[in-house]
What we know:
Elements lengths: L26 E2 L7 H14 L3 H9 L1 H10 L4 H6 L11 E3 L7 E3 L4 H7 L2 E5 L5 E5 L4 H6 L9 H15 L6 E2 H7 L5 H19 L1 H5 L1
Parallel strand pairs: 1-4
Antiparallel strand pairs: 2-3, 4-5, 5-6
Amino acid sequence: MPFNTVFTPDRRAALTWCPGVRTVLGWRWPECKYTANDYRAYEDRVRDLLQGAKARAAIETGGIVWRLALEIVGAELLEEAANGPSPDVYSYHKLFRSEVGDDQLDDTLSSDELDVICGTYKAIMDTGQIEDRSWWPKEPAWRESHFDVGRWSAWNEKWFLTRLSRIRCGEEQPKKQASWRGAMRQANGASKLRTVLESASKDWIENNRDQLCG
């Protein structure tokens, strides 16, 4: 489940918003056949990306991004995420603004960076259009799918490890986004469960706010 560890900056501090660096995993022709070596190169790219603030933000994102970060970089990221926002939060952040009180900040990832983590390539079609193809479902597609039930389930883990094994054996290719949407259709009850879990989590935090902030 996504979470945040927020930071309230000193009101005297200067906050400078820096847009995320535009980045892409790679450009390919639509007929390209991907190999296990391509997947290893993708993992190396993610390791280079997930340093410091980016690593924290990936863990906090939850879902498929969280699982890929743990798989590629390691479980030590969990402790890093719990340590609170990094010093980079002053220039590159997600802003939380309440009706009363101070603004709060946390580390974040750009949409391009999320795409790299999910293994997204840009395929150049004969028409000149660009089509995304990814080893794993892109983060927005995951959030909108019935795979996302508000937590990483045993079924999610089995699916992930099965696909990962097939990729490493050269038996899987990056999918088009329409193919991912079709592959992730499941029982409609999953989205209802996610809503219930989110509501229960918010209620628990509100009821235990004093202990959490004490």
